[in-house]
Structure formats: C-alpha cells, structure tokens
Write a structure and sequence with these properties.
homodimer, 178 residues, elongated
DNA sequence: GCCGTTTAGGAACGATCGTTCTTGACTGGT
DNA sequence: ACCAGTCAAGAACGATCGTTCCTAAACGGC
C-alpha cells in the first residue's frame, strides 16, 4: 500500500555507481544525484539513508555485478596468462573496475567499511588468480597490474594502448618456449 | 623591503602534496591547509592564487622530486626485472607515487591540466622502462603495474605483502633459465 | 468515501566550502 | 623618523554542501 515508486531502485544504484566512478565521492553532490538519477531528495534519503548509504550500495552493486564476472572469467582459465587475457576481455573497453579503483584510492584510506569491501573484492581476484599461478605472491601482483592497467586506460586519451600493453604483459607471462 | 615571510614556500608545497595524496583534492579544505601548513589564508592565496594553484604546484613538485628519482633509478638498470626491483627499492615503503596515483584517478578525468601532467609523468616512466624492455608495449604494462602495486600498498593494512608481490612479478619477468 | 501509509515535490536548515576584505605588524630606503 | 610595500591575523562574504521538514499526491483496506 502507499503511493508506488516512480523509480527503479537498482537502476538508481547503477547510475549512482557510474557517477561516483567518474567524479569520485566528493565530486558528486546530492543535487547532481537528484538531477541525473530522476529520484528526488526525499526518496533518496528514505531509501538509502544518506549519501554514504547510497555510495555503499553502489559499491556493493559494483562488486557484485562488475567484479564478480571478472573473477568468474578468471576461474575459467588454464594458466595465469590466459587468466589475464580473459580478465581484460571481460572488461572490453568498459568500466569493470572503475568504481573499485576509485574506492580503493579515494575512500578506502578514510572509510574502514569501504576499505573492507575493497579488500574483499581484491582478495577474491587474488584467490582466482592464485589458483592458476605458480606462486601466490604473483597473483597479488597481477591483481595490482589489472587495476593499474584500468587506471591508465581511463586516464589516457588513447585507450587502445592499454590493451596492447595488457596483451604484452600476458605474452610475457606465458611460459617461454625454449 | 616588506615584512619577511614566516613560512618556507617549498616546505608548504611538500606538506600540501602529502595532504592531497592522503585525502584527495576535495578531501582537503582550505581550513585544513591553513591549520596544518602554518600558512594563513591570505599568504596562501597571495602565493598560489587559489586552491587549485596550490594543488598544481604540489603535483609538479611531486613529479619533479618523487617520480623523477624513480625514472632515474630505472635508468640505471640492466633489464626490466632489475628496473622493477629498483623502482620498488626507491619507493622503499614510501609514497613515491601516491599523489600521482591520486591525481590520475581523481583529478585527471575532470581537469585537463592535471591530465597533461599525469600523462607526461607516466610517459617518462614508460620511456625509461621501454629502453630496457623487449617490447614497448610491455613497458606501458609495467608502469601500470607499478601504480597498481602502490595502490594496493596504500589500501592494504599488510603493506609487506605488496613488496613480496612485486618481487614475485620481477622474478617472473626475468628471462627463464631453461 | 474515508483512513493509514508511502512517495513526490520543494522550501528551508545549519554547516562548511573557496575566496575576499580589513586591519595591524614588520621591513628596507631616504 | 617617516613612508611605501609586504605579510600576518582573522572576520566576513556568497555559494554550495548534506540533511530535514512540510505539504500534496497516489495507492490498499475497511
């Protein structure tokens, strides 16, 4: 009962995730969210409690719907090089790690709950890679490399370069044919 | 002539760089800067023009005094693996890439001048690595990996893990003894 | 048709943002 | 000793921040 909602909650969360990934937490104001999400202030606070509540929902949505497919793709690979290739393929010019990247750099140092979420997501990537890696430490390095590659991909104007770079890294990781 | 300054300009720039690296651009207010830098509002605006002016000065200082030594260290290496090892050694538990990382993720997408500065710094790292790399694309991937490793180092509570991860990556990059 | 409940639509709140203004302290040159 | 010029100190500005309050609109149940 009551008046029906004029918005789709998960659609709002997804749009918020895109905004936060693009402009950082402090770079997105409530007015921005209200203007671009089609939700009005009151509904937003009624549904998510606060700006931070919406941010946490967006971050969790992002981990669940963007990072998890990445982990799954890695799980289907035979060795590390193939895993890296598949991870890059799943992102396919897209924003598969953008919010995670932003959260790790901007919010994790000052928000323990964000830090925990980020650590869990990175840990999942580590585990998926470690299962196909000769050493567990290398898996951590590769997770880091994936983040770094996405970082450059979004910062650089010539995004294609990063795919070539990633391909070169995967090639280098292949067992050398001696 | 005139009253002498009560602060050291480059010391202020360095402290500002540390603050911006820790809390992001929007996370540091003028009041924060005034309180922690020992400079008062008027002097700050007289010297740097605006908050953004101080930020640009801090970013340029960081590139000049933190990234450049990294490039130099890479230049002294014999191969890629050694270059990565040296780059990590120069950072030595420190913040050699923190502001660059933050600028690339947070400011570069919305501030073209920051984007140019970041691109130049990353390009310098690329070149230094490319000179010692079998393929130029691999150099780009390694620059990305260095950023990603530092990203995890600052996000993770157990910072030592990242050094092990970096070491594992360097080891993997070594030409395999067949 | 009225009631209880939930949402939409805005106005409004105090706090904080980046920036500017005003006043007084301190300097070198004449 | 006075003047011109630079800096320190802090109050104050309008704008914007996240958040709350109030009223009208749209539903299900009796």
């Amino acid at each position: 009962m009551g008046r029906p909602r004029g918005f789709d909650e998960i659609e709002v969360v997804r749009a918020a995730a895109a905004l936060f990934a693009d402009h950082a937490y402090d770079g997105v104001s409530i007015d921005d969210l209200v203007a671009r999400l089609g939700v009005h202030r009151n509904s937003l606070y009624k549904t998510f409690g606060s700006k931070r509540g919406l941010y946490m929902a967006a971050l969790r949505w992002h981990v669940e719907n963007r990072v998890r497919p990445l982990v799954a793709a890695i799980g289907g690979a035979d060795d590390v090089a193939e895993a890296v290739r598949r991870a890059l393929a799943v992102q396919e010019g897209g924003s598969g790690l953008d919010l995670l990247l932003m959260a790790a750099v901007e919010r994790a140092p000052v928000d323990p709950e964000v830090a925990a979420e980020v650590a869990a997501a990175l840990g999942a990537l580590d585990q998926a890679l470690a299962a196909r890696s000769p050493s567990p430490e290398l898996a951590g390095a590769l997770t880091s490399a994936l983040l770094g590659l996405r970082l450059r991909g979004r910062a650089s104007s010539t995004a294609g370069d990063c795919e070539h770079a990633a391909a070169a890294l995967a090639r280098r990781l292949d067992p050398h044919p001696c």
